[in-house]
Amino acid sequence: MIRQTLHDGWQLSATAGPVPEGVAGRTVPASVPGSAHLDLLAAGLIPDPYLDRAEEELVWAHRTDWRYDLAFEAEPAGPGERVDLVFEGLDTVATVELDGAVLGSTANMHRSYRFDVRAALAGGAREHRLAVSFRSALEYAEEVESRLGRRDHVYPHPFNMVRKMACSFGWDWGPDLQTAGIWKPVRLERWHTARLARVRPLVTVDADGTGRAEVHVDVERSGPAGDADLVLTAAVAGRTGRVTVPAGQTSAQVAVTVPGARLWWPAGHGEQPLYDLAVTLEAPGGGEPLDTYERRVGFRTVTVDTTPDEIGTPFTVVVNGKPIFVKGANWIPDDHFLTRITRERLERRVDQAVGAHMNLLRVWGGGIYETEDFYDVCDERGVLVWQDFPFACASYPEEEPLWSEVEAEARENVARLTPHPSLALWNGANENMWGFRDWGWPEQLQGRTWGLRYYTELLPSVVAELDPTRFYSANSPYNPGMPVDGTHPNDQDHGTRHEWEVWNRVDYTHYRDHIPRFCSEFGFQGPPTWATLTRWIHDEPLTPTSPAFLLHQKAEEGNDKLDRGMAPHLPAPRSFEDWHWATQLNQARAVAFGIEHFRSWWPRTAGSVVWQLNDCWPVTSWAAVDGDERPKPLWYGLRHAYAPRLLTVQPRDGRPVLVAVNDHDGPWTGELRLERQTFSGAVLRTVKLSLDVPARSVAGIELDPSLVGPENAQEEVLVATAQDVRAVHLFAEDRDLAYDPAALKAEAVAVEGGYRVDVTASSFARDVAVLADRVAPDAVVDEMLVPLLAGETRSFTVRTAAEVDPAALTDPLVLRSANSLSARVVRY
After folding, report:
1. At 382, phi and psi to the nearest 5?
2. Per-residue model confidence (pLDDT) at position 824
3. Distances (CA, A) of 97 to 3, 155, 337
4. In what helix (H) or strand (E) does residue 460 lie, and over which residues does it extend?
5. What is the largest CA-CA distance in the chain?
6. Of 130, 248, 443, 550, which alpha carbon lies 20 to 30 A from 287's?
7. Can you spell out the DSSP letters for 243-308?
8. Helix axis angle, 576-600 relative to 633-641, nearest 10°?
9. pLDDT tens digits for 265-281?
10. Structure confidence by residue, pLDDT tens digits, 80-133
11. Is 212 helix (H, G, I), strand (E, B) or coil?
């Protein structure tokens, strides 16, 4: 197999549509992989799409057609040689021409395309012209909708009528910047006799600990010359399996067993050993391999326990026979412009997930099947992957041309992802069964198809055929008994649940109204960090309702919900800076509140998957890490709430109980110290208990009434401490507490790699934070949202390459706490 990449020398031009004068008639260099927006940006023809209100200026691109042209040289096809033109990904509705002849058309971003071009290269010519013409995906989708009939969808454009990343058309956290381009590699492949058309390693572990890699292979033969016996070999961990593929046969299987294979575990449960798997296809006489395939695999078993119990239907992830409490987040594409996402960027993002003690990322159905780099990084870090098929928040036609496209993409991607030990389960769609039940779809559909057969017939059959080692869930949320007993898809006692009444309608304390078996979506909004916000938005003055700020707030009534969510808890902000900090703080508080509730109910509740880890651009959103990769206060809140050991006060039978959560393989033992004290530090009551929580379990500890019966609820705090784990419990909301707004004194000094900020509290200070990015854009603090008792000192380390005045790190806009919202603070 000889591969020739075709990435250099492409040219881009607009061919139709409402193209502005500065772009019309222009031809610009094109990056491949890439997209039209990025090429125009590089040529200086459009503003950065993320800047201020540029998104509004680029609406013309929705209905624009594009042409990519390439002149290239290639050797003529030799005798018996097959030459294929391979596109790994085209976004989205395209026609491919070689030397003026049409090779084919495409309408699916989520799959690859292969064209046999040996005839075109057989004439002796070395110089060729390749053209890919893209038409407006929006106009194509509108045409399909007109032909098949409208199906409901949550946003204005009919994204459900074309197999393109749904959030490319905008979402409640993403821009409406509809991309077009050659978004994955393109190459010529030269081969003879036969090639490996598809390789599916199914990797499991036998009961005796023997690792088993069953490698299923589809072979494409080159015609009569390829109709001969072949030899297929697979090697892993020093073990080899070999079979003969008889003449005329186009599929084969070879197994390799590895006695005593080291097991792959999720983060927090063990190590992640990976083994190199090499697959070779040869002619019987040996010589140069006809084709090869190399991947890394890990030996483990993953399933989901949905065995009915006395409550209903659990949804418990089980790895290597061990039930796992899932601590996760939903994942969206990390940049709206997908080709800017590098492996290094993915490493940083997944490291942030692991740094917040996560063990699972859910690849949400409005995005894409992620790149190999994403799954490789998750394999290495021990992050389980829940993979949605790309369906979200809409009713989808089951007629052609969509049915065949869905089947093709599903077959390709299920097979492609089989090697990855991180891949834990497949999910049919996001919220579509729920939508059919509650969002008025039946009335709108009037009997038309809406996607049910995808989720209950096509997709599960593809997974069962191509990857029977993985669990399949029809939707999220989903009640496994729903088709039989008619219960609601979002029933708290069955399967997975989404908790969106909080954020949309009710206060975050209502997370406690439900005890889901597995919460696969919940979250709360907050703005990006200050450095990200002010890099991209330049309104004067900058306010929550200034035009560019509002364009970067995509949620329906988003700011109203932010204000409503703060009102029961925090004092009313007096300035935009206070509003920015208060909304970030409330976001962190709300999500941590939900997580602590869910974790306190293990094993009844077996998972918490926050919406969402990341952003695709600078925006006010539910993300813990903003579009410029900076951790928001929420990220620190997640790290606290997902910590392996957690103390949290939770209601049980109408009384407060201290719940100790131990997500370690060993018991949690030692002294538990409980104190009720005043904000000024006077200890009013102390109780010492012995703590003994078994491994991977939860224990409830009754609280003496003297600890939870304050004399002055406005000025007292309950402090629970076990080793280095602390929880504080207040007896009123922050807005009603007698915080000292000037409780903190601080000094900052330069240290190697940055600065140390020593903060001392003269009175109880809640959620102390150093918002270091306000001082230097690259500055990151090691910890945030820390409670300080009266008399305590805490040192915060700020890492930055910038030289700054250390005093800037103690400025009232930088050194923050809940206290700083309780009264007007002098600004310097």
Report:
1. 75, 35
2. 42
3. 20, 34, 25
4. helix 459-466
5. 94
6. 248
7. EEE-TT--EEEEEEEETTPPBP--TTTS----EEEEEEEE-TT-SS-SEEEEEEE-B--EEEE---
8. 20
9. 999 999 999 999 999 99
10. 899 999 999 999 999 999 999 999 999 999 999 999 999 999 877 899 999 999
11. strand
Q: What is the DSSP string of 685-749?
A: EEEEEEEEE-TTEEEEEE--HHHH--S-TTSEEEEEEETTEEEEEESS-GGGS---TT-EEEEEE
Count of Cβ atoms closer than 10 Å to residue 814 Cβ: 23
Q: Could you give the count of Cα atoms lying within 13 Å of 799 in the half-sphere of its Cβ?
A: 5
Tens digit of each residue's pLDDT (9 = 90 or more) over 493-519: 999 999 999 999 999 999 999 999 999
Q: Is 399 considered catalytic here?
A: no
Q: Which residues contact 816 (CB under 8 A, 6 or more apart)?
A: 581, 585, 767, 768, 769, 770, 771
CA distances from 655 to 87, 513, 649, 651, 707 (A): 62, 15, 10, 5, 12
pLDDT at 825 over 50: no
pLDDT (tens digit per residue) in 582-637: 999 999 999 999 999 999 999 999 999 999 999 999 999 999 999 999 999 999 99
Q: pTM higher than 0.90, yes or no? A: yes
Please state, in angstroms and rounded to a whole number, the distance separating the CA atoms of residues 770 and 801: 17
> Do 158 and 152 contact (CB within 8 A), yes or no?
no
- Closest to 199 measured CA to CA, from 184, 214, 221: 214
d(CA 758, CA 790): 14
| Cα(392)–Cα(475) distance, integer angstroms | 10
Tokens of 182: 């050659």
pLDDT tens digit sequence for 186-237: 999 999 999 999 999 999 999 999 999 999 999 999 977 678 999 999 999 9
Instruction: Decide if 174 contacts 554 (C-beta within 8 A).
Output: yes
Single-letter amino acid, residue 175: P
- Tell me the angle at which helices 558-566 and 576-600 cross, rounded to the nearest 10 degrees: 70
DSSP letters for 477-501? SB-TTHHHH---TT-TTBSBEEE-H
The residue annotated as part of the active site, out of 55, 145, 412, 431, is 431
DSSP secondary structure string, 6-27?
--SS-EEEEEESS--TTTTT-E
- Residue 753 gets the label, from left (phi > 0), alpha (psi -120 to 50) or beta, of left
